[in-house]
Amino acid sequence: MDWPKQCAAVVPCLNEAAGLGSVVEGVRRYLPAVIVVDDGSSDATAALAEAAGAEVIRHPHTQGKGAALTTGWRRARERGFRWALCLDGDGQHASEDIPNFFQCAADTGATLIIGNRMGNTGAMPFVRRWVNRWLSRRISALAGRELPDTQCGFRLMDLPAWSRLSVEAHHFEIESEVLLAFLAADERVEFVPVAAHYKRQQSKIHPVRDSLRWFRWWRRVRATFRRA
């Protein structure tokens, strides 16, 4: 696989001017095509992404992480890419881990490869660590297999496989929905160890609003997945 020609990076962003330039530069050491989806930022996110060499698509107002990712995946398909590497714009994900995703895809034939941060959680904030483990246990039980890090946004995804699925999430439940959709379609899913670097910026997740949204999504998708 000629990854630089077959894969584009997709980076959803909301007010990530502080570190986005270095994120784009790091990714472009492996993938020249970087698509940044600016989800209604009020800072210089778009300008800095363009200066670092990314294509920028701007939402006129904030629509949610899931909507931003969907916009990026569609654009990657339009440009003829077979794969999308997804990562956050806040610098949490280390570009040095990118080759591990490519190697896993080559070795296993998986169509969805997800980063696993749970092997070394010392730097992960306690609440985030606890929530990630709790959600992963719930989704693992539903899927009937161990899924160590269901919420990690650092992923490599086969775009033709994604295009055949019905994925409706517009917000932070996108990671959970895509994972379950791939499993329900009998696509192969694998995990690779990744490092995660947490800085002091405030999380974009609203603890009440996004928790309620996730639970509404969970009730809906749990019934659908069990029927499938």
Task: Give a written overview of the molecule.
The chain is α/β, with parallel strands linked by helices and 228 residues long. 43% of the residues lie in helices and 16% in strands. The protein has helices at residues 3-6, 20-27, 45-51, 65-78, 98-108, 126-143, 159-163, 174-184, 209-227; strands at 7-13, 34-39, 55-59, 83-86, 112-116, 155-158, 189-193. Strands 3-2-1-4-6-5-7 form a seven-stranded mixed beta sheet, sandwiched between helices. The longest helix has 19 residues, at 209-227. The chain starts with a helix and ends with a helix. The relative contact order is 0.16. The mean pLDDT is 89.
Helix content bin: 40-55%
Strand proportion: 15-25%
The chain-level mean pLDDT equals 89
- Along the chain, the helix and strand elements come as HEHEHEHEHEHEHHEH
Tally of individual helices: 9
Rg from C-alpha positions?
16 Å
Major sheet attributes: 7 strands, mixed
Strand order of the largest sheet: 3-2-1-4-6-5-7
The outline comes out as globular
Q: What are the segments in which pLDDT stays under 50 over at least 5 consecutive residues?
A: none
Overall structural class, as computed from helix and strand content, comes to: alpha/beta
Distance between the termini: 33 Å
The number of strands is 7
